[in-house]
Specification:
The structure is a single chain. By secondary structure, this protein is an alpha/beta fold. The chain has two domains: about 400 residues, Anaerobic Ribonucleotide-triphosphate Reductase Large Chain (Alpha-Beta Barrel); about 270 residues, no CATH class. It has 34 helices and 19 strands. Helix 18 links the parallel strand 7 and strand 8.
């Protein structure tokens, strides 16, 4: 392993070893406590029911302290154990109980006792869950799109989905006691004869209940640390436990004063947010900015950099303990059990100066040493970023586990300003989850809509008179078959009409999900820590945030580009194949000598990713139809308080390219049926043959200023390509050019050879520490399904 940043000390190395040795399991504690609480409080207003549930869980769940840990707090009854959240959905868990440990990837163990517990509580939840009510809310016309896999929107109604960063800075400065005092003051001034004030009163009561539960949770750890200290024989560990007890009696109730207090306070809040909703993509925001004052204060008091690193490493290890189990149908869209807990460093201050500080460097160092898929690390790039810091980032890229990802201030800040985000907020944005962006503590629930629209499938239905080719089922009214299209303009005409209609249907599905999310699972703690929820007396899901924009996610962008280029070039320009020959080859999955011949012709057409305007311009035009349409729609919070309430595009497809490809017929780009689609905005496998600069030029032609939901670009290089100092300089120059001259949005690197990946697939026991970048996140290669592994192996290996 690369040791540029040094190694973990013996203590944290042992903690990491123990964590990696843990087989992920299923924990039923939260499910049981939630069921008891819901039964007891059925008559309460929903938001109070949620608050009382959190209160019961935090006061009664199992707690423990790692025997070597300095930061305390656990999500479940064991590290890496995934709780079940029955209020979202539980039918899938009952159906899959005997399959958790037999999955193709993302396996979990579960005891027979816990299986029985889930079966026993299931009858209470039947018909009461978010999934039950969410699916029931889908109109028949939109349900067709969901059932046929054209639009997938499962995750946000079967489990929590945060995609948000709260105001950690305020908690560190003021503490939860100050928030409780503020809420009590506002509550005392309400006029309960007013309907709006009456609604606010329930929200305020819920906040007080939850924040007092958070404080009780912290005090439980203080008491446990004291009890452990009394039995501890080591003077050093005894002192550490007493310090843990002191800190847990103080934070997050009171303002933090030291670096360690600040880390513990942030961890408690981050942890309870996960316990509240298990929301993936719950991110830490601009960690190096809000933590720096506490780092500086502790440095002045004698803290060494190595002790600061020890504390940071403790936080990253605790972050990795959080886990989530999803239905298998959803797991395939999020392969590798990602939580997308993003830490953002770098970027600019509100006056445009470089924001990198000492802590930024230590975050890089400790993430490198821990070598884990969580937390997700993003560096905000800007043209004033120093060569020294860029070199440190490049050194981390060499470690080969997909971090850091780079997001560019040069395109993102202007894009946010154009949306109406205030300058001081736009300059304070952070990465959320994968590559999505939002303003911490001021942005609404889910900055991404989590509706995956399959672009290639949309095209094939449009060319097939509104009928889905694989099933033969009609999706919607058609506009004619491909054989009837006399010009390429006819192709673009039907694409424009269909993608607009499918976009509209995705918004309908989103709105249905949001409607039941707002009614059934308001997140109290999360809302209390995002402005202006308290001032407005509204939780996040009903419009409490200052800003509220959502991206939807488009899958198979490169396949769409290559398909359009193949149709235009081969059928209409060169006339090397006829309409019938193309369609017959696709419908027979390119089988037989004729299918093979047609496929070779199609594959010789210009390909996206090579800076070829012939194909790139077609994608820009086709994507513009979607971008134009999505901008016309609003989300369920529109007009209810937040600035925005609108949609924009996004290419963060996670691992959806694999399952959505599995349900898609052969396509005109020469891709065979059921093969994965292209990931993110990256080119199709082996199609980008002109080098990384050409890929950057191609991607930069997209309307990145309008795809504010994230333009996710994965690049793969062999470790040998970055072996020499000069190679790193070339990488840095390439990244700078992409962001400064071409206005790229994002890039991240997989630094691993094809040979290593193939060997890891054959001999997983020899590669237990191999981490790869799947999409906008990293995962251990060995936990991925073979289909996802194959997809990563097949990606183009670039040469700098």
């Amino acid at each position: 392993m690369n040791n540029y940043f040094g190694k973990l000390n013996k203590r944290t190395a042992e903690m990491r070893r123990r964590l990696l040795a843990v087989q992920p399991s299923v924990c039923c504690e939260r499910a049981v406590l939630t069921t008891f609480s819901y039964k007891e409080n059925e008559r309460e207003q929903t938001i109070l029911k949620r608050a009382l549930m959190v209160d019961r869980v935090l006061r009664e769940m199992s707690i423990y302290i790692d025997p070597q840990g300095l930061i305390v707090g656990n999500q479940a009854s064991a590290d890496r154990a995934a709780p079940i959240f029955p209020e979202y959905a539980i039918d899938w868990a009952v159906a899959e109980l005997d399959e958790f440990d037999k999955r193709e990837g993302d396996r979990f163990t579960i005891t027979e006792e816990n299986k029985q517990i889930i079966r026993e509580i299931y009858p209470y939840w039947k018909g009461r869950t978010l999934k039950d009510k969410g699916y029931a809310s889908f109109p028949d016309s939109a349900r067709v799109f969901y059932d046929m896999g054209i639009i997938k929107a499962e995750g946000n109604i079967t489990s929590g989905d945060a995609h948000v960063a709260v105001d950690y800075e305020r908690i560190l400065c003021e503490g939860t006691d100050a928030v409780i005092s503020r809420v009590k003051k506002l509550s005392s001034g309400l006029n309960l004869a007013s309907f709006e004030d009456l609604k606010k009163s329930y929200f305020y009561r819920a906040i007080i209940i939850v924040l007092e539960a958070v404080e009780a949770f912290a005090l439980r750890y203080a008491q446990l640390a004291l009890e452990l200290s009394e039995r501890e024989s080591s003077p050093e560990r005894k002192a550490e436990l007493l310090e843990i007890a002191r800190i847990c009696k103080k934070v997050p109730m009171q303002p933090a004063q030291s670096f360690r207090e600040a880390l513990q306070s942030v961890w408690f809040i981050h942890l309870v947010l996960q316990i509240e909703s298990n929301g993936h993509s719950l991110s830490y925001g601009r960690f190096d900015q809000y933590m720096f004052p506490y780092f500086s204060a502790s440095k002045e008091s004698g803290m060494t950099d190595e002790h600061a690193c020890l504390l940071l490493e403790n936080l990253w290890l605790r972050t990795f303990t959080i886990n989530k189990i999803r239905p298998w149908t959803h797991t395939r869209f999020s392969a590798g059990s990602p939580l997308y807990q993003n830490v953002t460093i770098g970027g600019q201050t509100t006056d445009g100066k470089d924001a990198v500080n000492e802590l930024s460097y230590l975050v890089l160092k400790t993430v490198a040493r821990c070598h884990l898929p969580q937390p997700n690390l993003t560096v905000r790039y800007h043209k004033g970023l120093s060569d020294d810091f860029m070199n440190q980032c490049a050194q981390l890229v060499k470690y080969g586990f997909g971090m850091p990802a780079f997001n560019s201030d040069e395109i993102i800040i202007p894009s946010l300003l154009e949306l109406g985000v205030k300058k001081e907020d736009a300059y304070n944005y952070s990465a959320i989850g994968c590559v999505e962006v939002a303003v911490p503590g001021r942005w609404g629930y889910r900055c991404t809509g989590m509706s995956f629209l399959n672009f290639p499938k949309t095209l094939m239905i449009a060319l097939n008179n509104g009928v889905e080719p694989m099933s033969g089922k009609r999706v919607c009214e058609g506009m004619g078959s491909f054989s009837e299209m006399e010009s390429f303009e006819d192709v673009m005409r039907v694409w424009d009409a269909f993608v607009r209609e499918f976009c509209r249907q995705a918004v309908i599905l989103d709105s249905c999900a949001d409607m039941v999310l707002e009614q059934e699972v308001p997140d109290v703690l999360c809302s209390a820590l995002v402005d202006d929820c308290i001032a407005r007396g509204k939780h996040l899901k009903e419009g409490g945030a200052v800003y509220d924009f959502i991206s939807q996610l488009q899958v198979g962008i490169a396949n769409l580009a290559d398909s359009l280029a193949a149709i235009k070039k081969c059928v209409f320009d060169d006339k090397s194949i006829t309409h019938e020959q193309l369609w017959n080859a696709i419908m027979t999955d390119f089988e037989g000598s004729e299918g093979i011949r047609v496929r070779e012709i199609l594959r010789s057409a210009p390909k996206y990713g090579n800076d070829d305007d012939y194909v790139d311009s077609l994608l820009v035009r086709a994507y513009e139809s979607y971008i134009d349409e999505i901008a016309k729609h609003v989300n369920t919070r529109f007009g209810r308080g937040p600035i925005g309430g609108r949609y924009y595009a996004g290419t963060s497809s996670i691992s959806a390219n694999v399952p959505q490809g599995a349900s898609t017929c052969a396509t005109p780009d020469g891709r065979k049926a059921a093969q994965p689609l292209a990931e993110g905005c990256s080119p199709s496998h082996a199609a980008d043959i002109s080098g990384p600069t050409s890929v950057f030029k191609t991607v930069s032609k997209l309307r990145t200023d309008k795809i504010t939901g994230g333009v996710l670009l994965n690049q793969k290089v062999s470790p040998e390509i970055l072996a020499k100092p000069r190679d790193l300089e070339k990488l840095i120059m390439l990244i700078r050019t992409f962001f400064e001259e071409l206005k790229g949005f994002h890039v991240q690197y997989n630094v691993v050879s094809r040979e290593t990946l193939v060997d890891a697939q054959k001999h997983p026991e020899n590669h237990t520490d191999l981490i790869v970048r799947v999409a906008g996140y990293s995962a251990f290669f060995n936990v991925l399904s073979k289909a996802t592994q194959d997809d990563i192996i097949a990606r183009t290996e670039q040469v700098l």
